């Protein structure tokens, strides 16, 4: 028999739980299907020393907020897992753990047919809340590295001690790559870091966390439709910074002074050697320029608002490469491990609906697709930069819940959505 629901939510992380909370409040029948267990990604796909890069006071979900004693601190991996898992305990959402969705397709009679590992379901509405990071990216030329080199993706990295003895190459300096490189460096490992175009941001400036300044400035509330970068912002790499030990900058130049080896963009593997583009200096300069531009915007805001904030000297680069290394043989350098931190690909092959662009990304407006009744939640830049943060997910979930409530006929047809 086919199980019937008004809404099927796919994914039991913070996004799926957030819309479930709203649906519970509205009395709308639904089920949340989670392939593994609630919030498992926070525990299973993060390294041991992981911390959030957003301060605890910004951790809020519908009907739930951080209540610990360190609002300006940064939750570690276990605390983040417990935060999200504890959220579920506050309202008893209809989550079914260990149930995978095999396929979703539009039904000829309306709504959606949902095939699961526990049998078929039918739903009037489907909310896809599985995020946008599915398949770890490892380049094909990784196959040409020496067979005795340990290779793993950043999602598999746990600690320096779990890697074999020897030097470590980290490829990618986005949020994960930069923090993993720091973790290895602090553990006393010699680190080689391949840089790309990731920007950076200062942790603190003029007496406050930069996140606090940007929050007050409304930066996280600007919609992608109003942003100068437009939809292209969804492809941007996040700024690297860390919440470790109370929060601090990640300055790759300072790491280089302390012995970390830095390289430009990785091009290929040929004849057993890695080849790099001579882009290191320009990448470091570009990352610093972004950080300083954010400080410029904070200065302007402080001046406009007449805020009494302490002055602070601007950053001066502490290191520059004397020459750009463009070739590296791993065995000669003593490198025994490679951590690939170059992102993920989306994988929605199970979702059979015409809502994807040529790169496999869902096309939507605030999570609402062109297919009636099909929605996405928890995507980077779904509506604003803040969509990637707990509070932003909460706002996006409320918007979709209002939409579902309207389309389900609970609200009058003249209702408007904020």
From TrEMBL:
Transmembrane segments: none
Xref: InterPro entries: Auxin_biosynth/cation_transpt, CHP04046_FMN-dependent, FAD/NAD-bd_sf
UniProt key word DNA-binding: no
Gene3D superfamilies associated with the record: FAD/NAD(P)-binding domain
Keywords: Oxidoreductase
This protein's record includes keyword Transferase: no
Protein name (Swiss-Prot/TrEMBL): MSMEG_0569 family flavin-dependent oxidoreductase
Originating organism: Rhodococcus jostii
